[in-house]
Amino acid sequence: MTTDDKQKYSTPNNQKRVVFCDFDGTITVEETFVAMLKRFAPELSAQLMPEINARRLSLRSGVRQLLESIPSECYGEIVEFSRGKLMRPGLVELLDFLDAQKVDFAIVSGGLRIMVEAVMGDLAHRAIAIYAVDVDASGLHLQVNSEFEGDAELVSKVRVMRLHPASEQVAIGDSLTDFNMALQANSVFARDRLAEYLDEQQKPYTKWDNFFDVLEHLSQKWK
Q: How far is CA 194 from the centre of its chain?
C-alpha cells in the first residue's frame, strides 16, 4: 500500500475509538450476498456453501469460485437484486450517536461493494470508508478484485483494522466472515453464527439483535 493509500484510509493515531461493522446479515436483515450467490450460482453454491461454513474451504477460495462463475451479463441484475433490501433497525440512530461521540464508523464487508452501495444509498457517506470486494465485468465472467485480500479471506478485515489504530476497536458482525475481526477487536457485538464461533473460542462478546441494542450498550459504556 502506498503512502497516499494510507493517508486515504487511515484513522488519525489519536483516535480513541473506531467501530468496524459487517454489512451482509449485519446491516441488512437478511444475508443478501449469500442470497445473491444462491440465485446467480445455485448449483455451485449448494456444493461450496456447506464447505465454507464448516471451515473446510477458505472464504477466499470459495467466494472467488462462486463470484467468478457468474456471467458478467448478470452484473446489472445483481445491482437490481440488491436494491430495497431491508436494513436492521437503529442504524441511523447509532450513526448519529457515533457522530456526536466523534467515533469513526467503517463498513467492512466480505461481499460486493456494489451491493453495499445499492442498499445503503444516501447512508453510504456516513461511513468513513467502505471496504469490500470489487468485480470486473468486462469479460465473459465476473473477475474478483480485492485490495485487501488475505491468506484465507477475500477481504482481510484484520488488515483493514490495522489501518485504523485506536485504543478501542469495536466489531459488529454475524457470521464467519467476521470471525477474525472479532478475535482482534477489544469489544464485539455478535449474533447468529459468529456468536457460535466465538463461544467455541471462549471470546467474550455482547449479544445483539438490532442497532438499538448496540447504541444502548455503547452509550452506557462510554458515559
A: 12
